[in-house]
C-alpha cells in the first residue's frame, strides 16, 4: 500500500492548501475593510491626521476633529461596516441555499418587502427606531414565506422561486410608489432619501440593533455553514449526506431575512449589496471554504467604498445606494445573459 | 465487515402528492449482496430507491434499517450507514476532485468538530478504490462522463457507509464506462462487503452484475430473486410488454434477454 500513503499525503496537502487559501482571502478582505474604515475616518472634506483620529477614538477632546470624526465620520463608518456585513452575509446565504446568484434577497422581494414595511411604518404609522425594525422584519419574513409557499410544488425549485420573487417584488415596488404618492411632502422627501439607501444620517446608537442582529442571525447562519456547503451539491445529495434540508432552509431564510430587515430599517435598501457580495466572494474564495464570512467582508467593503465614492469622488454627492446600484445593474444583465446560456450556479 | 446491516421494505406505499406510485412493496435486501431494481419507465423504481433512502416519505408502511424506521432516525446518524448517489448530483462550479470527494465526510462531522486524520484516510482510500487518484487536482467540469461518475462514487465511498444506494449510475455513460462502473461496484462489494442497491436500465447488465433482482411493475413487486429465477420470457413480457428470448450470457453464464421486434428477424421457413 505504498500508493495509499502518497495519495493520503496529496489529500492532506490539498486540504491544507484550501484552508490556507481561505484564510489568506479572509485576511486580505479584513485588511481591505480596515483600510476603508480608516479612510472614512481620516479623509473626508478635510484631512484629519491619524493621531488625532486615535485621540478622538480614545475619548479625548480634540478641537475640530472631535465633531467631524466623532459625530460625523465614526457613526457613518460603523453603520456602513455593519450594514454591509449584514447584507453581504444574508445575500450569499440565499444564493448558496438556492444555488443561484439571482436568488438574492434584493431580487426575490425580501428587501423590497422589508422596505415597503419600513416606508409604511414611517409614513403611515409614524413609527421610528426599533419598532420600524421589528415591523420590517415581520413583513420581510412574511414576504419570504409567501414567495417560498407560492413557488412550492413537490419541493421548492430555485428557478420558480426566483420568478415568483421577481413578480412579488414588482408588486411591492408599486405599493411603495403608491404610499409615496399619498405622503405629505415632508414625509415623502424623508422617505425618498431613505429609499435610495444611505448612511447620511447614521447615528452611533443605531449600531446596537445591527450588532445584535449580526450576532444572533449571523451566528445562526454560521452554525449552518457545513449544511449550506452540502446544499451546493443539490438537495438530494445534501439529504444523503445527512443534512436536514427543510430545517436548514427555514433557519437560513429566517436568519437571512432578519439580517436584511434590520439593515433595511436603519439605512434603507442599499441596492445590490446583498446581490453582489456573494458572487465577488466566490471568485476570490473559489471552492476553498465557506462563503459567509468572506461575503460579509465584501459587503462591508462595498458599502464603505461606495459611500466614500458617492461622497467625495464624484462631482456632486450621492447616497451609497446610487453607487452600488450603478455597480450592480451591469452585473445583473451579465448574469441574466449567462444564466440563459448555461444555467445558473453560484 | 463483521456487522451487517439489514434493510427491509415493509408494506411500503409512496408517491408524489395525491398520486400513489408505489403500492404495498415488501422487500428484504440481502446484506453483503448486489441488488438491482429493474422495470419499465415510470414503473416506480426510482421512487422506490428514493423512499428507501428517505428522500421521500412513505404514505404507508416503512423502510427499516436494523428494525428501525429510517424516516424516524436522525438523518445524520442514518447517513453514516446508508449512502446514496442520486441520479443527477450537482458539482459546485470549479470544484476539484479531492474537494468534492472530501464532502462525503459530512455526516461524520458535527458543527464544531475538527478534521481528523481518519477523514483524510477515508478520502484517500475512496480515491484509490475508484482509481481517481490521478484526477485529484483536476476540476470536475473538465472530466469525462465516466471519470465524473467514478468521482461521485468516490464521494459516496468517503462517506464509509455499509449500504450504498445508486440511482441509475450508468445512464449517461457509453458501454465501456458502464462496465467500468459496474466492475467497480463489484470490487466494492467483494472487498469492503458493502451492500449495494441500484436502479439499472440495462437488463442484461443487471442480470450479470446482481445477486438479487427486483422487477417492479406498476408500483408493485412482480418478481424478486436470483437473476436466473427472475429473468424469464414471461417476466419480460409482463413487466416490459416485450416479446423476447432468454439465452445464456456466454461470458458470465447469467440470463440474457434477446428482444424480439417486428423487424429484422432471420426468416425461418
UniProtKB/TrEMBL annotation, chain A:
The subcellular localization recorded is: Cell membrane
- In its keyword annotation, does this UniProt entry include Transport? yes
Principal localization reads membrane
User: Which GO terms of the cellular component aspect does the record hold?
Assistant: plasma membrane
According to the lineage, what is the superkingdom? Bacteria
Query: How does this protein sit in the membrane?
Result: Multi-pass membrane protein
Please name the GO terms of the biological process aspect recorded for this protein, alphabetically.
siderophore-iron import into cell
- What would be one Pfam family of this protein? FecCD
Alphabetized UniProt keyword annotations: Cell membrane, Membrane, Transmembrane, Transmembrane helix, Transport
Residues that span the membrane, as ranges: 77-98, 107-126, 132-150, 162-183, 203-223, 250-276, 288-306, 318-337
Report a single Gene Ontology molecular function. Answer: transmembrane transporter activity
Concerning its family, UniProt says: Belongs to the binding-protein-dependent transport system permease family. FecCD subfamily.
Q: What is this protein called?
A: Iron complex transport system permease protein
From TrEMBL, chain B:
Decide whether keyword NADP is in the record: no
One cellular component term from this protein's GO annotations in UniProt: plasma membrane
Instruction: Give all residue intervals belonging to the ABC transporter domain.
Output: 7-243
Q: Which UniProt keywords apply?
A: ATP-binding, Cell membrane, Ion transport, Iron, Iron transport, Membrane, Nucleotide-binding, Transport
Q: Which family does it belong to?
A: Belongs to the ABC transporter superfamily.
SMART domains in alphabetical order: AAA
SUPFAM superfamilies recorded for this chain? P-loop containing nucleoside triphosphate hydrolases
Superkingdom is Bacteria
Q: Which GO terms describe its molecular function?
A: ATP binding; ATP hydrolysis activity
Tell me the GO BP annotations in alphabetical order: iron ion transport
User: Topologically, how does it sit relative to the membrane?
Assistant: Peripheral membrane protein
InterPro entries of this UniProt entry? AAA+_ATPase, ABC_transporter-like_ATP-bd, ABC_transporter-like_CS, P-loop_NTPase, Siderophore_ABC-ATPase
Q: Record's PROSITE patterns?
A: ABC_TRANSPORTER_1, ABC_TRANSPORTER_2
Pfam family name, one: ABC_tran
PANTHER family noted in UniProt: IRON(3+)-HYDROXAMATE IMPORT ATP-BINDING PROTEIN FHUC
Q: Where in the cell is it found?
A: Cell membrane
Q: What is this protein called?
A: Iron complex transport system ATP-binding protein
